TrEMBL record:
Pfam short name (any one): BPD_transp_1_N
One GO CC annotation: plasma membrane
Protein name according to UniProt: Peptide/nickel transport system permease protein
Localization per Swiss-Prot or TrEMBL: Cell membrane
Topology versus the membrane: Multi-pass membrane protein
Species annotation: Neomesorhizobium albiziae
Highest taxon of the lineage: Bacteria
Family recorded in the similarity comment: Belongs to the binding-protein-dependent transport system permease family.
Keywords from the UniProt entry: Cell membrane, Membrane, Transmembrane, Transmembrane helix, Transport
Domain ABC transmembrane type-1: 95-300
Predominant localisation class: membrane
InterPro entries reported for this sequence: BPD_transp_1_N, MetI-like, MetI-like_sf
MF-aspect GO terms: dipeptide transmembrane transporter activity
Transmembrane segments annotated in the record for this chain: 9-30, 95-119, 140-161, 173-196, 235-257, 285-307
Length: 315
């Protein structure tokens, strides 16, 4: 098990290095001059040159990458061109919105998807199965920003139960902050729940056809116990894999939702940084999200041994 963990860590580190090169290179070739964007079209050449020197844009590309990559090791993501503050401060300020939003959405999608998947698998071929899978197909096909607009109209405009957008901050209290995150979390969770429910159903149907399930039923064990205690646990490996991928997607895929609900999270920060060509902010946030994906995938791989004890002997 230790050798497996070390191998995964080395793969993760190599992935981070390659990702840093790709992210830095792709953003550097984007057309546009951050200095001219900050000073405006009427800026003089001397002012532009002075600002480029101040921001380090006059340095060779390789040197700038090495300086930036070495700073990542100490969580020094550089200094924002636009806000003139350390990028890590901007990330720390915004992640307290994006991370709870992603966690709430993940909990919601799991709480919806697994019962729906189990319910549908246990009634395979019946009208209830057709209806539930039809609903999940609708959830997969419809984008989350459409759900967001629909939820705003129903619960914020029509019923006026929750705010339509904005975030009061955690200093205003836990309940007002959570209330502001409910609709965005639901908009993020519903499409992911549809995908996870279909995966749960497919995996569970495959397990229900195994010989040991038929043996358990032949011994007189109630079908409910066979379904939840035996079949579901052995069907969880694909489900856990999708859960890990979904968390990474939810954390990185909040750009549209945070802009729809006007939430001051990482997604909105990236969107603003792109429009202002604040490349150092974009690079820092993207690398943070890449690291989050790698860590989540490592945790998912380790959780396989907890879900299926047979895998421990093979590692």
């Amino acid at each position: 098990m230790t050798a497996y963990i070390l191998k995964r860590l080395l793969i993760g580190i190599a992935t981070l290095v390659v990702a840093s090169v790709v992210v830095f290179s792709m953003l550097e070739i984007v057309p546009g001059d951050p200095a001219r964007l900050m000073l405006g079209i009427n800026a003089t050449d001397d002012a532009l040159q002075a600002l480029r020197q101040q921001m380090g844009l006059d340095q060779p590309l390789v040197w700038r990458y090495l300086e930036w990559a070495s700073g990542l090791l100490t969580l020094d993501f550089g200094r924002s061109y636009t806000y003139s503050v350390p990028v890590i401060d901007l990330i720390a300020e915004r992640i307290v919105v994006s991370l709870p939003l992603a966690v709430i959405a993940l909990v919601m999608s799991t709480a919806i998807a697994i019962p729906v998947g189990v319910f549908s698998a246990s009634r395979r071929g019946r009208p209830a199965d057709t209806i539930s899978m039809g609903a999940t197909q609708f959830g997969v096909a419809v984008p989350n920003f459409w759900f967001a607009l629909l939820l705003i109209y129903i619960f914020a405009v029509w019923l006026r139960l929750v705010p339509a957008g904005g975030f009061p901050g955690w200093s205003a209290g836990v309940w007002p902050a959570l209330t502001a995150l409910i609709l965005p979390a639901v908009a993020l969770a519903l499409p992911q729940a549809a995908i996870l429910a279909r995966v749960t159903r497919s995996s569970l149907l495959e397990v229900l056809g195994e010989d040991y399930i038929r043996t358990a039923r032949a011994k007189g064990i109630p079908y409910r116990h066979v379904l939840w205690r035996h079949a579901l646990r052995n069907a969880l490996i694909p489900v856990v894999t999708i859960l890990g991928l979904q968390f990474a997607f939810l954390l990185a895929g909040t750009i549209i939702i945070e802009n729809v609900f006007y939430l001051p999270g990482l997604g909105r920060l990236v969107f603003q940084a792109i429009t202002q060509r604040d490349l150092i902010v974009v690079e820092g946030v993207v690398m943070l999200l890449v690291a989050a994906v790698i860590v989540v995938n490592l945790l998912v791989d380790l959780s396989y041994a907890l879900v299926d004890p047979r895998l421990r002997a093979n590692r």
